[in-house]
Amino acid sequence: MKKAGCLLAGVLSLALAIGAIWFLSGWWGSAEVEEDTSFIVPSGASLTSVAEKLADEGLISDADGFLLRAKIFGSSDPIMAGEFLLPAGASNAAILDTFQHGEVIRRFVTIPEGLPSILVHERLMAEEHLTGEIPVPVEGSVLPDTYDFERGEARSAVLARMQAAMQNYLAEAWPKRAPDIAVDNVRDAVILASIVEKETGKASERRMVAGLYSNRVKDGMLLQADPTIIYPITKGKPLGRRIRQSEIAAINDYNTYTMVGLPKGPITNPGREAIAAVLDPAETSARYMVADGTGGHAFAETLEEHNRNVAEWFEIRRERGEM
């Protein structure tokens, strides 16, 4: 009898050991995550509802078992809302820790320099992971940059960060402006910077272009910036054709071929470098510029010199078969 009792005790001990190993492995062993998987914890969700969602999506084998082990072995820290990445082979313990202490997945949207507000609006509306409606933002109110966001975030919140970034940059940059620049307030600086942004895509000549237009503003000359012709027609979208003579002669609040001074508002969202160029333009006597065929411009101080540069540009275009 004594030998049988010892045998039974041994069997029970072994069974308990096996059960304990099974119970522990159900927490620290691999769950059912076969490949890297994104998982959304809804706002306000309880751990119970999240466990049920995990089970429904086949990422854990049993919601009740997950909850029991979480109560015994897991942290009591609250879970966070958001989208999380569960790596392949993650254990139940790792899954809970991810929801409690991990980083939510950040997504990104890029607003390049010189993107007009109508296209900023289209870009944000096209982001399928954002929610809600937004109006077309005020032109010049968005700072071009790359912005991160969470899945399910409101478009209005992302737009507000873009506009706050512009306000913060201007608040920092304006006090550092050079003396005797062509503009005397922040709004006009953004307007002039939007013209500089659209008139050159070459970083090395931004300050030169800013200096040229600053000279024209100070002299009371027509700015004659082609993008100001296009803006009232397309709101900054590409025109897709050559500018017509009737459009050059059009009288409106933007066309700087028929009005002296700055347009009534920005014609795009200028980037930091274009704004910085306006606030500290190159010292130059140039009043004229024309494309030079390399992506940049030929600058001139006099109309006579400018006309020679124009003739050279026309010759380049004829050689290219553009005229």
Judging from the principal axes of the Cα atoms, what is the shape?
elongated
Number of helices: 12
Mean pLDDT across every amino acid position: 88
> What is the gyration radius calculated from CA atoms?
32 Å
What are the segments in which pLDDT stays under 50 over at least 5 consecutive residues? none
The ordered H/E elements are HEHHEHEHEHHHHHHEEH
Helix content: 40-55%
Indicate the structural class.
Answer: mainly alpha
State the end-to-end CA separation.
Answer: 112 Å
The proportion of residues in beta strands is 5-15%
Strand order of the largest sheet: 1-2
Describe the structure.
The chain is mostly helical. 47% of the residues lie in helices and 9% in strands. It contains twelve helices and six strands. Strands 1-2 form a two-stranded antiparallel sheet. A two-stranded antiparallel ribbon has the order 3-4. It has a two-stranded antiparallel sheet with strand order 5-6. The mean pLDDT is 88.
Keywords, please?
two-stranded antiparallel sheet; mainly alpha
Topology:
Layout: H1 2-28, E1 37-41, H2 47-56, H3 63-73, E2 82-86, H4 92-101, E3 107-111, H5 117-126, E4 145-149, H6 155-173, H7 186-199, H8 206-219, H9 226-234, H10 245-248, H11 272-279, E5 288-291, E6 297-300, H12 303-319
Antiparallel strand pairs: 1-2, 3-4, 5-6
Helix pairs in contact: 1-3, 2-3, 7-8, 7-11, 8-11
Summarize the structure.
With 323 residues, the chain is mostly helical. The chain is built from twelve helices and six strands. 47% of the residues lie in helices and 9% in strands.
